[in-house]
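Researcher: I need the complex structure. Ligand is guanosine-5'-monophosphate. Inputs:
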Amino acid sequence: MKQMEEMILREGVVLPGEILKVGSFLNQNIDTTLLGQMAEEIARLFEGQGVTKILTIEASGIAIAAAAGIAMGVPVLFAKKHKTSNVDGSVYSTVVHSFTHNEDYHVVVSRDYLSSSDKVLLVDDFLANGKALAGLMDLCDQAGAELAGIAIAIEKCFTGAGDRLREQGIKLESLAMIESMSEDGITFRS
Ligand code: 5GP
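Model: Output:
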């Protein structure tokens, strides 16, 4: 998506550890014009796929997921992060390794909000090593929900995780696909 790529080139800051900082338009200070365009693009890409619900992970995925949910006319559910498993039987729970904080945490969703009648679109801001998505897919499996596909704002293609998911036959669409990035610059997959 051209507007995303232009914004990343203009505002994105590459930090050590292959982290792209996008706080000025996506992760902290949200450019609502761009967010609306992203949501429309996600709705277009997944039109006719029978999506009944969007699932994301707190916190940075929520804004994009909510905007996409409005554009698609479907509810939005977010998995909550916990230091402990917090299992009392009322939640589906899994463990995710955080790319940005380099630690494991539990993520949970209430059994009341995800079921085998759902066809789920996973949405997140970044795809790096795919750990967050693996956790969300595990929650869907536990609920017996069907996976409709995955929409990502920014995919770091150089990890290979996105292509591995595509090879499994999953419909994965990313609005910006970064092929390489360093302090010297960012290149996109064409
Ligand atoms: P993964 O689980 O795919 O390794 O990493 C995805 C998660 O880590 C996303 O939910 C996102 O919050 C965070 N993340 C991964 N890479 C970056 C990055 O370069 N910049 C920012 N801001 N977050 C990232």
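Model: Summary of the prediction. The first helix runs from residue 2 to 11.
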